[in-house]
Amino acid sequence: MDDVLHDYRVDLLKDAIYYYPANTPFHEKDVIQPLKPFDLIFEGNNPGIAPNGDIGGALIPGIYTHMLMYLGKDSDGYAYGIEMNAHKNPDLVVKVDGTVHVDGQLYVYCLGRDFDRECPPDESIQNVVSHGEHSWAKRLASPLHQQVLKHRVELLNTVKKDLQNAFPFQIPLKITYWEHVIDLINDGRIHGADCAEYLATLFETTAGVCMDNIYMDASGLTDYFMHDPLGQQVYLAGKYNPFGDQDLYIADLLSQGKYTIRDNFPRQTACSDRRQVVGIPVPQKVFYSPSLVTIPEKDLH
After folding, report:
1. pLDDT band at residue 126, thresholds of 50, 70 and 90?
2. For residue 19, which of 65, 73, 82 has the smallest C-alpha distance?
């Protein structure tokens, strides 16, 4: 375990199934999902739960606002995953160039053992904490999954290097105050990434695999914050508000503040089809991507 958590030897993890205890109010019974390495775990809250105004989950559209990836097991049977996340109680700083900076990085976590999420009672062990009432995993469709498996060594070595270098967290937004514009940022791996962008570009750059329909452009984001009942509830708490000291609803910023969300320039990907992408990937769209498939459940009863 120390090799994985402290020396980042994710390359030593075994290619083994992890019986993951999925959690969602939509199921009345206990559900176990048999995860394979590189399966994606999505987490979030019910639509009825108002966003708490923090800089992380508040701005991300949909029920599923966070995602991580299962990597494999160590010799003691503990499962591990990686996620890109902000530090606890981070400071928000808008830099001179308008980019929004929040301290954070790529993490590796103990997910638990089969059928539970319990890890050893050791304060030095980072045990992933659920980010909401929903926690559900999905898998890349077979051709894409097989393509990723062909590049398993390269992918794990990339993750290992990123962990060693504390690959930085990036909020994909740039604010231009005098133009009243919020620009979307999609620069691949150049300046860091959030949870969805990191995993999307990891598959892209190591295996040439791209997931379909995972990006939300400026028009989609604007429509979400202005017209979607859940999006209309989204606000930034005053301590994270780069426009002032008060709580700020994004819908008010766009309507009363006359701010506009603007698309990034199309980014040329490293995908096998050489596609270009506009907008930013969000966990909710990744969850419903046609490139992912449902993982069969294991009934405990």
Report:
1. low
2. 73
